[in-house]
Specification:
By secondary structure, the chain is an all-alpha fold. The chain has 11 helices and no strands. The protein has helices at 3-20, 26-36, 44-51, 68-78, 80-90, 97-118, 131-141, 151-160, 172-187, 190-202, 215-224.
């Protein structure tokens, strides 16, 4: 990636933040997740529902023909221990992230098959546990290591910063590495840190050190791709 291009875009991003004062829903969601998530909870259904809540946006888990949270809640009702194991494996940092994400997708395929077998007249044909929602789970559990992923953000920063090779298919692991590099540049920008801290205070969201997360870098990557993080 071209260092000067990153610095130039960061200056544009600061202007955008000053003008729009807009941070994504990820901060709101993480605060709920942090206080609610407990894989050992007796009622896994209630715990999962409370962990994925936002007063800002539900775009991460509810869009047209896309409802991964609703589907996971249905799976929990059927096979709570299987779901518990799926998340335990996903959050095992001893295994490479791409392996864990693909394993979680496999678990989801199995859960969908169970669901279809027990609900023969259901019109549900997709569990919607794609890289986007799986990356959200990871970024909520380990905000210092991961950021939400979408292919258009990944493709966008590779194009804008001339990172080779240009992606043709999903590669969240590569995206996470790029976000970590960008985060280091952002951390050095005192003005940017102050902008974030000020906006989070206004929104009554309590992050003592927001730049210890990858969320600012993730929001910046979405911005660079011509989008915004929900």
């Amino acid at each position: 990636m071209k260092v000067e291009s990153i610095k130039e875009k960061l200056n544009h991003y600061k202007v955008f933040l000053k003008r729009e004062g807009r941070l994504s829903a990820i901060w709101d969601i993480e605060q709920n997740f942090r206080t609610s998530w407990n894989l050992h909870a007796e009622d896994l259904l209630v715990m999962f529902d409370q962990s994925l809540q936002s007063s800002v946006s539900r775009n991460y888990w509810k869009r047209e023909k896309y409802e991964p949270k609703k589907n996971m809640l249905a799976f929990i009702q059927l096979e709570p221990e299987y779901v518990r194991q799926a998340f335990t494996d996903l959050f095992n940092e001893d295994v490479e992230p791409e392996q864990r994400m693909d394993r979680f997708s496999f678990y989801s395929d199995q859960l969908l098959a169970i669901f279809k077998n027990r609900n023969k007249y259901s019109v549900v044909n997709n569990h919607d546990q794609d890289y986007a929602i799986i990356s959200l789970y990871l970024s909520l559990k380990y905000p210092g290591h991961y950021s939400p992923y979408r292919f258009e953000w990944f493709e966008g920063i590779c194009r804008v910063f001339d990172a080779k090779p240009q992606p043709k298919v999903d590669d969240p692991a590569r995206y996470f590495k790029m976000v970590r590099i960008i985060a280091k540049f952002m951390y050095k920008d005192e003005e940017l840190r102050q902008l974030y801290e000020s906006e989070l205070r206004v929104r009554k969201l309590f992050f003592r050190k927001p730049f210890e997360t990858l969320y600012p870098a993730g929001e910046f990557c979405a911005y660079c791709s011509g989008n915004t993080m929900p």
